[in-house]
Amino acid sequence: MYKYDHYDQAMVDARVAEFRDQINRRIAGEMTEDQFKPLRLMNGLYLQLHAYMLRVAIPYGTLDSRQMRMLAHIARTYDRDYGHFTTRQNIQYNWIKLEDCADILEELATVEMHAIQTSGNCIRNISSDPYAGAAADEVTDPRPWAELLRQWSTFHSEFSYLPRKFKIAVIASPEDRAAMRLHDIGLELIRQDGALGARVFVGGGMGRTPMIAPEINPFVKAGDLLSYLEACLRVYNRYGRRDNIYKARIKILIHEIGADAYRRQVAAEFAHVKTFGIDPPLAELERINAFFAPPAYDAPDVEPDRTDPNFAVWLDQNVKPHKQTGYAIVNISLKPLGGIPGDATSAQIDVMADLAEKYSFDELRVTHAQNIVLPYVAKSDLYAVWHALRDAALADANLDLISDIIACPGLDYCSLANARSIPVAQKIATRFADMDRQRDLGELKLKISGCINACGHHHAGHIGILGVDKKGVENYQLTFGGSGAEDVSIGKIIGPGFDEDGVVDAVEKATEVYKELRQGNERFLDTYRRVGLEPFKQAIYG
Amino acid sequence: MKLLTGNDLGSGAVTWWTGNGWSIHVEDAADVGEHGEATLHAEEGARRVNAPYIIDALPTEDGPRPAHIKDRIRALGPTVRTDLTLKPADPAAGDWII
Amino acid sequence: MVEFRYRTDEVTEQPSVTLDAFLDQSNATAVRLEPDDDARALIPFLDRLTLIEVAFPKFRDGRGYSAARILREAKYQGELRAQGDVLVDQIAFMRRCGFDSFAPESSLNPDAVARALAHYEYAYQRAADAVEPSWKLRHG
To answer: Rg of chain A over CA atoms, in angstroms?
Structure first.
């Protein structure tokens, strides 16, 4: 894992001091809320329905046990004993006081953490593959590149007042576990003629106008990447729309001028900025690479004893193959039956930290599906890990099943929301409580957003649910056919919306249609893509 | 009736204008009638409230009931964590929201 | 009014003209750029200019930061002034982008500005100022 040096630490410490000064000036009345808002947002601080909400960055979703324990400590000390893991590999605290905020950031800084640029119209936390370093299919570990980008994007003087927020994801596998092409910039690291570089996709995103990012450059070599991104951002900063907040994302610019025109403008800007020495020497990437060297694997290649049937189910569902023989990737579901997707108590966070320290070379990951990963678990330890997770109510064996729901906080917490998301997630999970039934349905990614901003990724759900406000009453629209994986697609609205119970019934009917029509090993998504919407519509609307 | 609401600048807590101050209990909220704007600006200027706005509400026996579900959730707390609401001991409190 | 100036030369007295006016007649030595003006239109004339004023009608509109970078990248040496809705907490980034004078619409507290400029000893990126990025300090 990356470790801060003197420069990194000085940067984060300076930020704490700066924000403390800004908070003091706000409380003293030297700034209006309108002036303070972008500053607090760039420190991850929102004003939500019940209190301030603080979003803490977990850069590219990687953290160690010390950092994880700090997250529990913050929850226990400054919040209400729990935190909410988000789809962008961050954690949110829902009950924060402005007065405590600088102290919280100061504590986070002691473990090399921060809330820098987790909101605001700037470059946000760089997200990545939660299996990075452990996945068998990766070309390289994408995290050193993500760290390089973290540093480049932190306090970027030119790009801190962009037309709108800007999200970057980096992956290095053909399998996309980070919804890469649904980001403002998606980078897929590839090897070409022996050299590593990035395929660059620009202009994806969810929100009101979902778009899949087109490829803007098939290969940017490592030594040019920051200059190239600088060019991508400069064209956006200069020409992105600022007249309408709903049209201000880069996807709209690229949609309006066309990918070819954007590509040409970026190429011209790149040729210009490349002359100014923006790219660090490759030695810097190598310096960062060294922090991500594989751990000292030493486990024997043994298969776990499957005698305990509950353990076997969990193994089959939540444990994934590792690139190192003798090891496995463990997914910890934060989607207990009837629980709140992504929430974990301080005690649970501590348990996960302990397990990481004892069994996973001190590392954890946060996934965009709001789950936690122990990336390096010896197969011989799996049973012990499962036991400990079960004792902490963290052993739900539902990864990628219908109850592994992504849901935004919705109207229960969020000031932007139009409808509640969490109760819908709870009702669906409860309806499908029978695990055999869930397993029979197989991979089915259900995603719920409480408003058009799509934080719950409903556009990318095999089944997506969008909550809307229909004359003051919560109403839910269903979409089918979305995917955030390598077979990326945007879901389509199937027809008129439903009330809360109605949407649960409609989801159930859709699964029945799927069971009737599926062929071979087809997933729900595959069947839907083959047969189209009509049979589902028939069953749901009659 | 109309209510004036916002959040406390320091703590972020949801607050309601009572006619001569701020309360975290919607039951204490006063009808501001057509005069809410002036109070809003004065109180915001004095930083006794943050991000204030005026909402519609219905007077009931139990006190004012905000017209929109969003403000009822603000008034009580998240429907999915009744233990964190202002009435954690009242299991029926959530019904007031819906 | 110019409240903060980080240059030692004389303040230019000539009022700035709009970009269109400048490109039309062009005797002026001071130009004012609006957010949607293309700073690159000035590149052929930079030798003659002593002041370029970049307007920030709203502090949230960040196009002026790119305008400043582009002008400094083109080796513009004259005064580069940020004018308008310029706030305390923006001045450090503006300095990095190459602005060296500030005419905020609403007067700023000089102590707060001094503190804002002093917060960061290091920077992660190369910009228009002389600060070496941390990767440069790491690798020499």
So the answer is: 23
Packing angle, helices A500-517 and A422-431, rounded to 10 = 40
Domains in chain A and their CATH numbers?
6-109 (3.90.480.20), 134-289 (3.30.413.10), 309-391 (3.30.70.3340), 406-541 (3.30.413.10)
Q: What is the pLDDT of residue B98?
A: 86
Beta-carbon separation of A161 and C61 below 8 A: yes
At C124, which helix (H) or strand (E)? none
| Cβ–Cβ contact A24 with B under 8 A | no
Taking residues C54-74, what's their average pLDDT? 98
Asked if C89's CB is within 8 angstroms of A39's CB, the reply is yes
User: Quick check: do B and C touch, 3+ CB pairs under 8 A?
Assistant: no
Domains along chain C with CATH numbers:
4-139 (3.40.50)
Q: Return the ∠ at Cα A521 (arms to A515 and A527), rounded to 5°.
A: 55
Contact residues, chain A, for C73 at CB < 8 Å: 272-273, 276
Query: Which one of C62, C122, C134 has the shortest CB-CB distance to A161?
Result: C62
Where is A258: in which H helix or E strand? none
pLDDT digits 0-9 by tens, A473-518: 999 999 999 999 999 999 999 999 999 999 999 999 999 999 999 9
Q: Does A165 touch chain B (CB under 8 A)?
A: no
Kindly report whether the global pTM for this prediction surpasses the value 0.95.
Answer: yes
Flag whether residue A34 sits within 8 Å of chain B, measured between CB atoms.
no
Band of pLDDT at residue B60, cut at 50, 70 and 90: very high
Mean per-residue pLDDT over chain A, rounded: 97
Report chain C residues whose CB lies below 8 A from the CB of A123. Answer: none
In whole angstroms, give the CA distance from residue B79 to residue B62. Answer: 19
Q: Are the C-beta atoms of residues A176 and A187 closer than 8 Å to each other?
A: no
CB contact under 8 A, A284 and C119: no
- The ipTM (two decimal places) reads 0.98
Instruction: Determine the residue among C38, C71, C124, C139 to mutate to test chain A binding: the one whose Cβ has the most chain A Cβ atoms within 10 Å.
Output: C124
Which residues have CB under 8 Å from A148's CB, separation 6+? Answer: A225, A226, A280, A284, A285, A288
In the predicted model, what is the mean pLDDT of residues A219-247? 97
Compute the distance between CA of residue A180 and CA of residue A128 in angstroms, rounded to an integer. Answer: 8
Q: How confident is the model at residue A462 (pLDDT cuts 50, 70, 90)?
A: very high
Q: Which residues of C touch A (CB under 8 A)?
A: 35, 59-63, 65-66, 69, 73, 87-90, 92-94, 96-97, 109, 112, 115-116, 119-127, 133-139
Question: Looking at this protein, which amino acid is placed at residue A377?
Answer: V
Question: Chains contacting B with at least 3 CB pairs below 8 Å?
Answer: A
Q: What's the token pair of residue C73?
A: 């990248």
Res A91: pLDDT: 98
Residue A65 near residue A364, CB atoms below 8 Å: yes
Q: Would strands C4-5 and C101-104 be described as parallel, antiparallel, or unpaired?
A: antiparallel
Say how far apart CA A442 and CA A444 lie, in whole Å.
Answer: 6
Collapsing DSSP to helix, strand or coil, A126 comes out as coil
Outline where chain B has alpha helix (H).
Answer: 36-45, 69-76, 93-97
Nearest chain A residue (CA) to C125:
A152
Q: C126 contacts in A (CB within 8 Å)?
A: 276-278
